[in-house]
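Here is the promised in-class demo. Please do not try to memorize the tokens; focus on the logic of going from shape to residues.
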């Protein structure tokens, strides 16, 4: 299982520890079945801290190429997840392009 091998390298844990933690429900590796370039990432006990990178558009700046460059920069700085904090206009094509450019999951923040 490639996810298990990736988790053991990323978090510097023996394969047996990852398997044991997952069997006990203390760790899991979500399957990213809809995005072929996402890197597997364990979530749970005894793993490295995760770091979120924030990016997005604003009414003053909405350049997709700039967002993709920011995604690459954040991933190169070891971001484990990105948060899309766009306040500018974003359409489905922009979202699809951004998601397709990221090796790590992208979440959003709800507006209350």
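The designed amino acids, position by position:
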């Amino acid at each position: 299982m490639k996810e298990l091998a990736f988790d053991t390298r990323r978090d510097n844990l023996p394969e047996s520890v990852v398997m044991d933690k997952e069997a006990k429900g203390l760790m899991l590796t979500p399957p990213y079945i809809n995005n072929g370039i996402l890197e597997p990432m364990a979530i749970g006990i005894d793993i490295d801290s995760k770091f979120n990178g924030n990016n997005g558009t604003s009414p003053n700046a909405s350049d997709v190429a700039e967002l993709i460059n920011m995604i690459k920069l954040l991933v190169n700085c070891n971001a484990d997840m990105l948060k899309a904090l766009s306040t500018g206009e974003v359409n489905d094509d922009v979202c699809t392009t951004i998601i397709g450019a990221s090796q790590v999951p992208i979440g959003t923040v709800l507006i209350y």
